[in-house]
Design a protein that fits this description.
- This protein has 162 residues and is mainly beta.
- The protein has one domain.
- Helix content is 7%, strand content 37%.
- The protein has 1 helix and 7 strands.
- A 7-stranded mixed beta sheet has the order 3-2-1-4-5-7-6, covered by helices on one side.
- β6 and β7 form a beta hairpin.
């Protein structure tokens, strides 16, 4: 039996990760593949976007510029080199135009040697620093504690909330 939804994002399941599935916790996932795909926009036209797949879940992440710049800074410009690397994501509230929205942001990686600061450059905006962290210290990826209302489809085989 599927658990009752506790977040709005759970009412509209799909193939992509949504901030509400994280239940307010950081989640570490291992990159399985990186691809590009034409995806529909709100204006009706398709736009080619990066899509990342992860081990242990069918959910994928549509790459935005901020997360793309963070992952590139951690693992380099060769996207094939990202495969097998772990990324820790956190849900955040962010501004998208004039709207406040739930977002998924890169926090760091257990695969970083040390914390780094990245300058995020977006069109028509001033570059902003973003700190990325080494998210493990004892040889295990971080995994949030699960509560009883976490739906089974929001948990990967390592017990990490998606």
């Amino acid at each position: 039996m599927t658990a009752k939804p506790t977040h709005y994002d759970e009412l509209f399941p799909g193939r992509f990760l949504k901030a509400g599935l994280f239940k307010g916790r950081p989640v570490t996932l291992r990159i399985r593949d990186v691809d590009v795909e034409a995806l529909p926009t709100d204006k009706g036209k398709d736009k080619v976007r990066g899509v990342i797949s992860f081990d242990g879940t069918d959910k994928q992440l549509v790459l935005n510029s901020t997360n793309g710049q963070c992952i590139r800074s951690m693992f380099g410009k060769g996207v094939r080199e990202w495969i097998g690397k772990r990324v820790t994501f956190v849900p955040e509230t962010d501004m998208f135009g004039s709207k406040r929205v739930d977002a998924i942001r890169v926090k760091g990686s257990p695969d970083l040697e040390e914390d780094i600061t990245v300058m995020i450059e977006l069109p028509r905006k001033k570059a902003k620093p973003r700190k990325l962290y080494r998210t493990e210290s004892a040889g295990r990826p971080s995994a949030p504690e699960l509560d009883d209302d976490t739906p089974p489809e929001a948990v990967n085989e390592d017990g990490e909330v998606l």
